[in-house]
Fold these 4 entries.
Entry 1:
Amino acid sequence: MRTRPLKVALLGCGVVGSEVARIMTTHADDLAARIGAPVELAGVAVRRPGKVRAGVPDELVTTDATALVKRGDIDVVIEVIGGIEPARALITTAFEHGASVVSANKALLAEDGATLYAAAEQHGRDLYFEAAVAGAIPLIRPLRESLAGDKVNRVLGIVNGTTNFILDKMDTSGAGYSEALDEATALGYAEADPTADVEGFDAAAKAAILAGIAFHTRVRLDDVYREGMTEVTAADFASAKRMGCTIKLLAICERAADGQSVTARVHPAMIPLSHPLASVREAYNAVFVEAEAAGRLMFYGPGAGGSPTASAVLGDLVAVCRNKLAEATGPGESVYTQLPVSPMGDVVTRYHISLDVADKPGVLAQVATVFAEHGVSIDTVRQQGKDGEASLVVVTHRAPDAALSGTVEALRKLDTVRGVASIMRVEGE
Ligand SMILES: NC(=O)c1ccc[n+]([C@@H]2O[C@H](COP(=O)([O-])OP(=O)(O)OC[C@H]3O[C@@H](n4cnc5c(N)ncnc54)[C@H](OP(=O)(O)O)[C@@H]3O)[C@@H](O)[C@H]2O)c1
């Protein structure tokens, strides 16, 4: 074993960084044995130097992250600050000064992964980011390496624990969205400002990363269609139950049937209770991967939290250090297919639509005609009437999203349709 240590700069010492520092210290001997050289924490960059950080010696703490990555003797930079800047500048500076980088920063990778990959390649260094998607769950490495000989056609996942917790509470207790959100906040599963989670931004960033790697093409955050889950109601869950389904916020990355394009989207969807993702409870994450030769694979586990996320960071640290000792680099960006990302209108799926309609003869025929005119074929219809008003629940066969949007627009114009109570996609069949 080499005795000269590999030097690690830790940028950020919050929820994830503090656990990274703790595990690096407590497991130092095991890490050294697995890598073939000791790893030494050479510096820790933070914003507030006065804060007490258990297990982190004061002399390692600095507020000058730029000077730390520019030192010239750093082998690996671990970026767990988050956000776009200064994280992006620090990562590119780290590459320029000879370090490889491990990051957990989904927002930056989804926004501008290309810049990071290019800098890593230019300087012959590694960029690893297992922790950026689904916390502890090994997903990036299986997609980048284990499935590199296969053809991935679909990635379907629950990649945000906060929203899964809220939807699970709504499902099991019959609670409304606000009530379930309050419980998630009280238990620490939701942040004070839950927008990034409940509006699907966090999941969309992960979808962009997963789609890019799965399909060997460049997918940016802007390419991902996104709908949050704040409009999901207890009534939607009741409808889902009647269909033998539950509701999950899903990230779905698909190769088109003709193989010529891909799509990436995040939205709430009904999935059958028989689907493995339906049984993912509380704040857990799970990702279902469909590959041509491998078939269907499911990855499941804790998708966030300091210690689970640090596990993924440490796994990357070991890999990057091994590469360094072997004077090699791991896989870089793979975008050779250059498949275009199609708009949401091209996505083909099934729909569950609840309409409030007048309870009088001929309404059903009128509604059915609108569906037919837009080429959307109906699978089942359920009608319930009371006091001159009725609700009509239509479940369609697979149809393009654009056709469904046209249908709904036309339905809203019918005198007999009082309102469109909800539209939900049906996935996983
Ligand atoms: N938390 C999770 O469960 C989780 C899961 C997966 C991925 N991630 C990702 O991991 C990253 C870190 O998340 P986190 O939850 O650990 O965040 P966090 O608790 O807010 O910690 C951020 C850390 O960065 C430091 N920092 C902020 N701005 C800085 C600057 N300009 N220069 C130097 N240090 C700076 C902060 O310093 P102070 O301590 O002085 O404030 C803090 O130590 C993010 O990219 C996040 O998306 C987190």
Note: Residues 306-325 form the longest helix (20 residues).
Entry 2:
Amino acid sequence: MTAITVDLPLVASGKVREMYELPDAAQPSLLMVASDRISTYDAVHPTPIPDKGKVLTGLSVFWFAQTGHIVANHMISATDGVPEDLRGRALAVKRLEMLPVECVVRGYLTGSGWKDYQASGSVSGVALPPGLLESARLESPIFTPSTKAETGHDEAIDINQAAELVGDRALMEKVAEVSIELYSFAAEHARQHGVILADTKFEFGIDTSDPARPLVLGDEVLTPDSSRYWPAEDYEVGRSQPSLDKQYVRDWATASGWDRTPPAPPIPDDVVQGTRGRYIDAYERIAGEPFDAWLARASA
Ligand SMILES: Nc1ncnc2c1ncn2[C@@H]1O[C@H](COP(=O)(O)OP(=O)(O)O)[C@@H](O)[C@H]1O
Ligand SMILES: [Mg+2]
């Protein structure tokens, strides 16, 4: 993909997505465009992964459709208001006032959760039983929020700190409850498709254009960038797991000798292709259809 040029006011540019204003919409709306950029350790690599943005968008749309009975989401349309050359990677969404926390849910003990557990026996203030092994399935999923750092790394916080950041304890408790419900629903769906959803991160906002100020699920949802998906057939407790997400690139990045400080190194072609294959595999396993089916629907 060449650089995206969009003839709309740019509202924000993140590591992976650009947000543009959709000025003529009936309510405050954004065009959320997922690029093919990939970041590891919070640094963006100079090499894009072809079609990655379309996988992220296709999977988010899949999950928005599946989870509407649990909580409202920001999606308006994958076609209406979306310029033709961006179809598949862009969505028209409701503009929200985002809550300043990342809503992480963990069903398995891995990543920073495993590190915290080894150091303290708990994760984000949630005490866990002793003697758990790496990648162990937790008795029930836990809510482990983190800060939404403008730059650098997000920091694990407990629900009290999250409530303070959001300024509304009742709202934060609802967010935790909804997050766990979303995770449980998605993990069950994934399990039926031979995939373990180890953990995931949601971002919520408030729709301030509605006088009732409803809580709305925003951002991307349950994608390989915001989640750890493990092929169920390879799962074994007591070690780290191969995964359908960017762990493959992280492993390459670590082995390359990069010290994880920006700038991130370019990615060699075989790793680009391997990564692209994993993203598409994730789409096809989870959505249960060929990736091309999404591309065809989005461009119709
Ligand atoms: N509906 C929405 N309204 C306003 N902001 C949103 C909405 N959905 C997502 N966002 C924000 O847009 C940004 C998405 O871009 P991204 O590249 O993922 O950024 P980041 O590098 O912070 O992860 C995030 O900051 C996210 O909080
Ligand atoms: Mg993001």
Note: The longest strand covers residues 195-206.
Entry 3:
Amino acid sequence: MAISISLTVNGAPISASIDPGTLLVQFLRDQLRLTGTHVGCDTAQCGACTVHLNGRAIKSCNILAVQAEGADITTIEGLATDGALHPMQTAFKHCHGLQCGFCTPGMVMSAVSLVQRQPDLTGEDVRAQFDGNLCRCTGYHNIVKAVLEGAEGMKSAGTANAAKNANAPATA
Ligand code: FES
Ligand code: FES
């Protein structure tokens, strides 16, 4: 039996009919064709599927699409503005914070959420908060550098404290 859901994805209102068992990541990738959100494990361990739900980073393989009813979802495709990369995307590019790039969308989404909650970060903070994001290429050193540089970029752009009062973990 199909069920109807309505939500906002990257600023666009979406209404769809889905199987109630559809995971949010399946809905984003298979139905909306937003394939920048990756599936690395499907068991809430790797963080490749991280998106923002009402401004908080969540693992989209870990919730059903129906649980996002009425929510505001942002995926990696929604970060750039008018073709200009988000400061965190720019930092990952500048710092070579990727190798194969498979984990990168989730890393970037987690990083943006982290900086919004905690703009002033140390490398230790980043390493501790990213325990839910795995990079199979083990490119962690440059990823940490990228997050720190991205945090400075977000502060300069005035986007570093959008969710400062949210007390959610970086990834759920
Ligand atoms: S695919 Fe969701 S955490 Fe790995
Ligand atoms: S860059 Fe390859 S998995 Fe992270």
Note: The first strand starts at residue 3 and ends at 9.
Entry 4:
Amino acid sequence: MYDINKIREDFPILSREVYGKPLVYLDNAATTQKPLCVLDAMRDEYLNVNANVHRGVHYLSQQATDLHEAAREKVRQFINAKKIEEIVFTRGTTEAINLVASSFCESQMKAGDEVLVTEMEHHSNIVSWQLQAQRLGIVVKHLPITDDGRLVGCNDITDYITPRTKLISIAHVSNVLGTINPVEDIIKIAHEHDIPVLVDGAQSAPHMKIDVQAMDCDFFAFSGHKMYGPTGIGVLYGKEEWLEKLPPYQGGGEMIDKVTWEKTTFERLPFKFEAGTPDYVATHGLAKAIDYMTSVGLDFIEAHEKELTRYCMEQLQTIDGMHIYGPVVSGSPVDNKDAVVSFNVGDIHHLDMGTLLDRLGIAVRTGHHCAQPLMDRLGISGTVRASFALYNTKEEIDALVAGIRRVSQMF
Ligand SMILES: Cc1ncc(COP(=O)(O)O)c(C=O)c1O
């Protein structure tokens, strides 16, 4: 059963104080806190196992390799990929998207071909493609959004597809609006036009069950640090047929089969895309984070966070001058919004609100949230963002609401 007090004990940082006030950590979309089991496992690996993976004949190297590859299998199960070869370790979502942008555009696109993203993307799903646009002359187009932060035309996405559209790359969940995009519908339509789809799962993998086979996405990217794992590790899932077609992203050790001055051949999947020493301690940590999430239960996590989102929206709406961005949520369960609530209050600048909330011990994010084109669309410079994790409570939302009221009275 979901015992929130017991869960919070797994995250000692949650019981610390800042400025003499209990910490209320509501910046989980930026990064989550790490449970003891993740920290212990990583410390234990450095203390007792540490050795470079894949290339050693000795005992420690074998043991480290086993842990590293077991983590890959754990990730495969977590997202229900068909094959272990489809799981590529990266530094995070950003690197995963850059990998596809570089390798896909270079091998599958010509000048004038188009990549379609949305108006609500994180910069990593915009700038990665813009870099390829500069390099190769491809064109980055975007699907517009409605005033309440949903995709326009998701049922009629064909309006935005042209004969030159070669890839669609979309956020599963917006890191600003919390909008859950109908990725399955989009993928179905895209596939009818033979267009592959990359799903940016940075804000969905921490909160809901992911099944890449059921979703039928061609690529799926996510970050370990946003789902209770360590920083510096993430995952690119790619359908085997696509990963086979794409050239390597970076060159170096681990990714080669044979190197001569004349010609180099590459390792089999997934190693072709994993140049250099991997962060094998972080992969082990990620596996422990997945174990942790699984032991709490993905269904519990999803239901708990949706209830927090609903409660937060309801409570925020009682504050004068409150403007919440993204889909309006009424009733429960919340179907199209997840774990992220962005808002502004009257004329109070988001940075002032965030700074004053911080003095009350409440950690929220302020600013453009790496989504400047979305801010332009909304006609604002930034928002205050509260985002939730499995350990947050309604009491913390009450503290946020009381804090906002207090700050509002100062202006
Ligand atoms: C939707 C989305 N995509 C991509 C990223 C980039 O993730 P990372 O910085 O872990 O690579 C983030 C991070 O906030 C995000 O929210």
Note: The first helix runs from residue 4 to 9.
